[in-house]
Amino acid sequence: MSTFMIHTAQSALSNAPIADSFFDGFREQMINVPGGQLFCRVGGRGMPVLLLHGYPQTSAMWHYVAADLVRDYTVICPDLRGYGRSLKPATDVQHAPYSKRAMAGDMIALMNTLGHDQFLVGAHDRGARVAHRLAADHPERVLALATLDIAPTREMYRDADSAFAQTYWHWYWLTQPHPFPETLITGSNDFYWLAKCGSGKAGLRPFVRQALTEYLECFNDSAVVHGACEDYRAAATIDIAHDDADTSKLTMPLLALWGQHGAIQTHFDCLALWRERAENVQGWSLQGGHYLAEEVPDQVIPAFRDFFANALAKNV
């Protein structure tokens, strides 16, 4: 790594604010799932809430939201397969081990081990795509689904134009055959992460030092870089095939939140696209960019709380 790369990472970390608390009272566990183990953070008591992170992050992104929800819920924050400290299986020509169906299967195994038959889900970015497949494949398990800054994968690819491709270039570049993107990222991991995640209006301000340290440490693992690329390769191929095969809409309540300063707001009608995939959709934009749970937790937390409480009340 060049001196410039090291300086960039050191500067970002030294300038990042230190959170007063960071998963205080949560326990860290490695949970066995078929093919390996998932790292997860677990805390609280009550109805379980499963929180799924996005790219190129880890479960650390939920530190604000989890600290609030843990007062009334059992909060489970895993690292997805391919990310963080979780399993990174060998792939195949169809990218099936990194399909959202496989990732959703991990979540079912995780929740089975923890003893939760039904649960609420909050999810961001790639994690929300896993959550969508989880709700489609296992509707009896998911009581309600809240998503942050995504529209459904199939519909986004269908409606994408060149302006979107300029903004979400990684959607296309990361799908290039192995080892092209992996080779170009490796050796410049910190620079890539900071440039990619700091490119929005908020820059790197949403990321506290504890989380940023974890993100950069994990993304310096070549297996994480490869796993993330496989996640995107699967999204453009096998995941769309699975979406095309769906013959019914989601029936559980779905909350879609997105950032006013992000690509979803600019390029898509988020609610219209979700209503192609689900029957019971509500949502609105928040005053933030892509990393909403870290940038504007004061807006995300009450939205999640109200949505989950109303969903549970209707299930009584």
TrEMBL record:
<dbReference type="InterPro" id="IPR050266">
    <property type="entry name" value="AB_hydrolase_sf"/>
</dbReference>
<dbReference type="InterPro" id="IPR000073">
    <property type="entry name" value="AB_hydrolase_1"/>
</dbReference>
<dbReference type="InterPro" id="IPR029058">
    <property type="entry name" value="AB_hydrolase_fold"/>
</dbReference>
<keyword id="KW-0378">Hydrolase</keyword>
<protein>
    <submittedName>
        <fullName>Alpha/beta hydrolase</fullName>
    </submittedName>
</protein>
<dbReference type="Pfam" id="PF00561">
    <property type="entry name" value="Abhydrolase_1"/>
</dbReference>
<feature type="domain" description="AB hydrolase-1">
    <location>
        <begin position="48"/>
        <end position="168"/>
    </location>
</feature>
<dbReference type="InterPro" id="IPR000639">
    <property type="entry name" value="Epox_hydrolase-like"/>
</dbReference>
<dbReference type="GO" id="GO:0016787">
    <property type="term" value="F:hydrolase activity"/>
</dbReference>
